[in-house]
Amino acid sequence: MPEEIGHADKVGSVSGNRYAEIVAELRKLVETASRIQFTLGEYALEVEPMREPGGQEKSDELFTVKDSLFRLAEDIGVSYSQVKGARWTASRWPKDRRMAGVSFTVHKILASIADDEERFEAILTPPEGKSRWTPDEARRRVGRQVERPVTPQEKVSAIHTLAQDDEVAGRITGDLLRRPEVVAQVSDEDKVRVVEELTREDQVAAAVAPDFMRRPAVVARVAKADKVKVVEELTRDEHVAAEVTTGLLRRPDVAFRAMSDDTARHQVNHAQVERGRQAREHFEDTSPVAPAVKNIEKSVEFLDLVTACHAFVAAAGRVVPGMRDRQLGDDERTIVHENVARVRATLDWIETAVDTGKVDVDSELARLLQGE
Fold first, then answer.
1. Which residue among 161, 236, 238, 274 has its CA within the 20 to 30 Å range from the CA of 83?
2. What pTM value is reported for the model?
């Protein structure tokens, strides 16, 4: 049943009545053109029948088929693709299944429906609310992109097709991302991907990162492991690291947890000793009273050493007499002998230091002093 066309309003530059007359005339021509296309297809099928049952071929580019169809196209003055498409469409629509009033273009689009019965039923049933098939409705039926997109998904598909060129896609993306209402509808996952792509260049990433890190809500969502990585990257410079570390160690909880790490505690102790050594060297090199202080220190060291020897002799004088008539066990004697060896080695070290001024400790004495 022909679709009713309104006659009241103008369409383009013509009145509604004139437009209806044009449509009626053109439908006749389209129907004639459809018959011509089917006839072209039938003759092409006669020259080269389809090679597979059901109107399909493993390859329409088979040399013998293409060669014959190409020759036919040249001999009648049309394109090879037109002959090829007409042949395939005619193979999908036997004469008794073709629908009068439906264009060859619609037949060609619906020809991609694989099942014969489904295909033959489809052309008899226009979309709901429509009195006739249109090329776009046929494309929707078989899942192809329409020429005039209506639904959001159709418009998205059309944009994707137009933006296959990377340069075009880049310009479109930039324009869209400047619209807040568009960005608000992008999923969090896609936003992350966009940011990752946009910040692949180090200079851009460096400019963006500080802005993000100034936003507490953003920082709060960063995973702990990633926060650690960020701090490590930001503190590669020793001056920055020193300033940050000083600030962190002023926080009791942080200092306690840091000092629970053996390596960190050792480094802090080493740093304190090294700082003391450097301060002492600076004092000795620059202070005018350094020689006098050095003499006093030597006197103090002498007194400390004499006191240590006296304390050891006095302690031994108190303890050893108490062992009269007491027999120590094997393990106890071993422990005492080990400590006596340490004491004897220490005494030799003291004598060497006093006689020569050399206080270096060789590896064997170091092991003894450490109890190894």
1. 161
2. 0.47
